[in-house]
Design a protein that fits this description.
The protein is of the alpha/beta class. Helix content is 29%, strand content 13%. A hairpin with a 6-residue loop joins strand 15 and strand 16. Helix 3 packs across helix 4. This is Notum pectinacetylesterase 2.
Length: 466
């Protein structure tokens, strides 16, 4: 694998924006608790799973530590085994740990945990997002993490680190920003100071983590004397505030809006938001910096935003589950409005890929090359963005006919012909949008929708490429 290149290192932050957990709260936790706030920052947490693509020398291998991984990779090459998997590494600084005190790895996970009750529930139901103890020694990357040129034509040979972020209560350790700092330090002997580009990327909550941490990463690399340009890739982390009025106490995740969860959590996380955004708001209003449409204008590093216009996690915030429950007329109206509001919030974003689809996360899907906006795929748009930034850095005129501001113009969810299929959760059958609306109890004629007429209208929009 090459160390140098247009994108030498890809730091991936992944996760779930806010899981509306319908399961009963856990009565307790039987694993080790590591104490208190230890320099944690908003947007990241203690769990960081370091899944690096093979050695930065040549291949991807197997191993528990960096040293063991290199030895195992060499052995695998000698035996003719597949060495394209990402390899598990532990941070050198053993004081920077996961939520339960286990060794920090790298893979930024979900964050909707803001109290002892919600954190206990999360630890019981999704332990892999809070502990490194169950992680495998190797993992096959997909989408932008894939080493296969057919699946990932532009970044298959990038050096990849992942991390997991949660925002947690004071009873758990939360060291996400510290983990990112330590990952950068561990990458120094691997050549990060010689890289041309470092792209910090994340999905869902990890996308929010990119927004909150990219300036800090750029500053750290600058202080190290690196000349790399730090860029951000935000996948499905561009959320809007909730429309519902709810109890500000919200003891359970499902009853809490994102704003209230952040407000409550900030008092426990010892969290810090980017300085330039914090200065825009009075004390107690820092939570607003968690929303991309408010934070974006304060950032100086280049950012590319990937966002489904009808994001399923945004819908779940409003207790809307497509294909899994009944749907009211008011909820259908909210879905329609969501696309317009998300579209408007992205107007001033320089680089964006926003299909008019119902889904969540994109860049790590194995079929990520299939989705298009106006005939351009996401990998192609990212490549165009990369070329434009390189041209600007070298005082050249960016190439024409290579777009990277791509927002669907059609108004309906699923009007883009490349959208992921909708699936009825009860029957697991694929349905069209109108079929799903009927299955969820909506009277199309009462809503002023003629099934045949609107099907024709949708077909017309699809034929025009969204």
């Amino acid at each position: 694998m090459k160390i140098l290149g247009q994108v030498a290192f890809l730091l991936l932050l992944g996760g779930i924006w806010c899981q509306n957990n319908r399961n009963a709260k856990a009565s307790g936790r039987s694993t080790k608790k590591a104490g208190g706030n230890q320099g944690g920052d908003v947007g990241q947490s203690p769990l960081a799973v370091d899944m690096t693509p093979g050695s930065t020398v040549s291949t991807r291998g197997t191993g528990g530590t960096a040293e063991a991984g290199r030895e195992a990779a060499a052995g695998a090459r000698g035996a003719g085994q597949q060495t394209d998997d990402m390899r598990l590494h532990f941070l050198k600084n053993t004081q920077v740990t996961c939520n339960d005190g286990t060794a920090s790895l790298l893979f930024l996970g979900g964050w909707c945990c803001h109290s002892r009750e919600t954190c206990d529930s999360r630890y019981q139901n999704i332990p892999r997002l809070m502990s490194s103890s169950g992680w495998p020694r190797t993992k096959r990357g997909t989408g932008i993490l894939s080493s296969q040129v057919e699946e990932n034509p532009y970044w298959h040979n990038a050096n990849i680190f992942c991390a997991s972020n949660h925002l947690l209560s004071a009873e758990y350790t939360f060291m996400g920003s510290l983990i990112i700092r330590e990952v950068i330090k561990d990458l120094i002997p691997k050549g990060i100071k010689l890289a041309k580009v470092v792209m910090l990327s994340g999905t869902s909550a990890g996308g929010t983590g990119v927004l909150l941490n990219i300036e800090r990463v750029a500053s750290q690399l600058e202080q190290l004397g690196a000349e790399a340009q730090v860029r951000g890739l935000v996948d499905s982390g561009w959320f809007l505030e909730s429309k519902q009025q709810r109890s500000p106490n919200c003891p359970e995740t499902i009853s809490c809006s994102p704003e209230d969860a952040i407000k409550i959590g900030l008092r426990l996380w010892n969290g810090v938001v980017p300085d330039r955004c914090r200065q825009l708001y009075k004390r107690g209003e820092e939570w607003q910096c968690f929303f991309g449409h408010k934070l974006y204008s304060t950032l100086t590093s280049p950012l590319f935003v990937v966002q489904w216009l009808f994001d399923e996690e945004q819908l779940r915030v409003e207790n809307i589950y497509m294909g899994g429950q009944s749907l009211s007329e008011e909820q259908w109206q909210y879905i329609q409005n969501l696309g317009r509001e998300l579209k408007n919030s992205l107007t001033d974003v320089t680089a964006v890929f926003a299909p008019s689809c119902l889904s969540h996360t994109l860049i790590t899907k194995s079929n990520w090359m299939n989705f298009q906006v106006r005939g351009t795929s996401l990998p192609r748009a990212l490549h165009c963005w990369d070329r434009s930034l390189e041209a600007t850095r070298n005082n050249r005129t960016p190439a024409k006919g290579c777009p990277f501001h791509l927002v669907d113009t059609c108004q309906w969810p699923q009007c883009n012909p490349t959208c992921p299929a909708l699936v009825d959760q009860a029957t697991q059958q694929e349905l069209t949008l109108l079929q799903m609306l009927v299955a969820m109890g909506l009277d199309l004629q009462k809503l002023g929708l003629d099934p045949q007429g609107d099907a024709d209208s949708l077909a017309s929009m699809v034929s025009n490429g969204g």
